[in-house]
Amino acid sequence: MSKCPVMTTANGSPVADNQNSLTAGPRGPLLAQDWQLFEKHAHFNRERIPERVVHAKGSGAFGTFTVTGDITKYTKAKLFEMGKQTDVFLRFSTVAGEKGAADAERDVRGFALKFYTEEGNWDLVGNNTPVFFVRDPYKFMDFVHSQKRDPRTNLRSGTMQWDFWSHAPEALHQITILMSDRGQPASYRHMNGYGSHTYSFINSQNERVWVKFHFKTEQGQKTNSDAQVADLIAGDRESHQRDLYQAIEDGNFPQWKVKVQIMTETQAEATSYNPFDLTKVWPHSEFPLIEIGTLELNRNPENYFAEVEQAAFTPANIVPGIGHSPDKMLQMRILSYGDAQRYRVGANHQHLPVNAARCPVRNYQRDGAMRFDGNGGGAVNYEPNSFGGPAEDPSVKEPALALDGAADRYDHREGNDDFTQAGNLFRIMGKEEQNRLMDTIAGAMAGVPEEIIERQLGYFSKADTAYGAGIAARLQRS
Ligand code: HEM
């Protein structure tokens, strides 16, 4: 006992007694002067920060990305130099549930990566699916509301979910993935990750190509059946967290092969689908996967709150050699994440150790709540200046991107094929997997009003007549 360091209050003053509050007599009321007691309570009352509005439940780990395939002809990003190793932090998550949600539930999974590169942090904030439910960010909030709780019953509602989806045919592709076996991964280690959006690579000649990122699990894809999920959740709501933490503690480091698809700007003008539409994949037959490296997770966080809860990923974080694309979902996300994090964590969240770049950060941002580093000290705080302050570097300017078209609110559903790729996915499944998919969908539609089912069945049938008919039969409709 005597070997323990002395406990202190937050101001560093030694604590004489951490067991008994200060009272007037042994049975008496508290004294207002017991500031140690009040400090302890007051801090406790402020322990929670708002949970993420989506992806609230998550697990994180540190690791490395090692380059094994040469793509320097496509990108000048230093992290892609052959053989290079870059430190990473990966946060997995479920999406729709709150912080107490059960890990094994049917849901999409988040796959958010932060690469601590020598030219700044690159965040690739993806999912375990290559596509998404909506293609216009105007519909994102409506979509999320429909998947969360009914405002009156406080229950999740199949009616809300299918009502939204049945008004959004572009969701069909992602619904087919969510309701398939892949909607219930056995663990975070046993699923793939995707950047999902189209991004760009820029090479040393300042030429652009479009790129999609894939992370293929080396543990093998493994999923849970409905019965396994029910069993698992009954005994353990933290099954994914436990699995990831334990594997890393045991030295059984999970790995993913990292691959890219590349499309030239000329090819992008000729595809039958919009290559910047987040509800579409690029067929691998036309745009083959190119292996570029290995991602390994090999260190558990020391402190969950500091490193996982306070982690802030944003698609805005890119580095020279990697750029965005005209995908309007991606464009909105560039703004949305930093905005959410300034509210959820604070204006200076990028200074926290898990979020901080591991290269010098030099700019003229100053002050703000909880500015806990030196705040730039006495250095000049405006630009341009005559005192040698940091200056811009035109060599990292991206090539110009040609755009055309009059400003308008274009109907994104007009002329868009929402059914072929969803149907292709259905058609490559084996009979048994198709049956499980249709069972799951029919089960999820129980109790949903007729009109909504009718509208949604039309979409399944357009993807594949057997898909629509199979679900209709299960709902006892002809
Ligand atoms: C988390 C917004 C689409 C993946 C979040 C958060 C917001 C948000 C506000 C919480 C951020 C925080 O508090 O730190 C949006 C908007 C979208 C969109 C506005 C579309 C317009 C997507 C898509 C993907 C995705 C398409 C995947 C391809 C994620 C992930 C997280 C997240 C993985 C959790 C990040 C973490 O682990 O901290 N999203 N999202 N989101 N989103 Fe999105």
TrEMBL record:
Pfam families: Catalase, Catalase-rel
Essential cofactor(s): heme
SUPFAM superfamilies linked to this entry: Heme-dependent catalase-like (SSF56634)
Region (Disordered): 1-25
InterPro entries cross-referenced by the UniProt entry: Catalase (IPR018028), Catalase_3 (IPR040333), Catalase_AS (IPR024708), Catalase_clade1/3 (IPR024711), Catalase_core (IPR011614), Catalase_immune_responsive (IPR010582), Catalase_sf (IPR020835)
Comp. bias (Polar residues): 8-23
Enzyme Commission numbers on file: 1.11.1.6
Coiled-coil ranges per UniProt: none
CDD domains membership: catalase_clade_3
Catalase core domain span: 8-391
Enzyme class label: oxidoreductase
PANTHER family: CATALASE
Family: Belongs to the catalase family.
Identification of the protein by name: catalase
Provenance organism: Sneathiella marina
